[in-house]
Amino acid sequence: MLLLAVLAYFLAPLVLGVSVKAFQLQRGELIQTVVASGRIETPARVDVGSQVIGRVAAVPVREGQTVKSGQLLIELEASDEKAALEQAAAAVRQAEVKLRQFHEQTQPMAEQALRQAQVTLLNVQKQYDRQRELVAQGFIGKAQLDDAQRNLDIAKSQYSSVQLQLQSVMPKGSDYQLASAALEQVRANLHAAQARLNHSKITAVADGVLILRDVERGDTVQPGKVLMVLSPLGLTQLLVQIDEKNLRYLQLGQLALAQADAYPGQKFKAQVAFINPGINAQRGSVDVKLTVAEPPAFLKQDMTVSVEIEVARRKDTLSLNVEAIRDAASSEPWVMLVEHGKAVRRAVKLGMPGDKSIEILSGLKETDVVLPATGVAVAEGKRVRADVVEKPVAMR
Quick one: where is this thing mainly located (predicted)? Predict the structure, then answer.
């Protein structure tokens, strides 16, 4: 018995495979966050600047003035932008009229032309049939039948041509699709023109007091220069530095969880209120400010804080621990899963990343068991035992 036990101990890895920790996929909610550190600012200060280069046409506020959210602070000259907006709006109206013509004129006319071509084809077909009978009876010569055949061929060609014309002006036809695409394009141009015009008006992001004004009418401004500093009323803000590689994920209004380093575990809610239009070249970061609607009593000026900004959320999605993904940064990520007791390579399509897990769009199912990318090396096709299955945490 002792000999059998010893043999079983040494032969088990050969027969059943090595024992390796593995991960199982999990279905649930996945949250992507951007993590940063910074400090408390109270009262908050918001740097006001321009997103575009332009000449200042008006500065209707003064330093020390209390302003309302949305109130105009600086207006840039925008005659070109206004003209571009009017031109884009005219192009949209023209494209809408052209598309409407398909429904009101082009399609009905094409349908009528098709009906007429069909009637003509039927008449010519009947004439051809009569001519063929007369030739068979010897009443007319074959030359007249040849003329009838040519007329029939022409009628068929005209019917096919009109049929194609009708198909092209229907909603799935090429001409209609081109007109529809043209309308979408000019609408996009209109939105872009409106956005450029909006950049000419710099407004207050919140109620507050202007504690600095460094701009006058006639000045030429450019992105990155602080023109005013606004101190919102009654707001506590967090000033954090975000790595510029994460700038594409950030938007105004995003929610976040923060905690002071002096009070770990006591998290409080915050919201992105300002994203600096300029990049700090020395640090390679962007200054971001978050407002705290209900600040805890322990928050103090310049206190160090850590912030997790929620930039995306997926509900009821499939995710896997990032430690199981191989070549994750490449165009062809893959995993080694356990299938019928053997290691099998499987290509996967990745989606949104979380903090500890990443969304799996295709390639795996919820019951799959996947080997870690590091640790015990298991070659494809080798037997393996996933004795311990770790379920990744799909939440942040």
Answer: periplasm
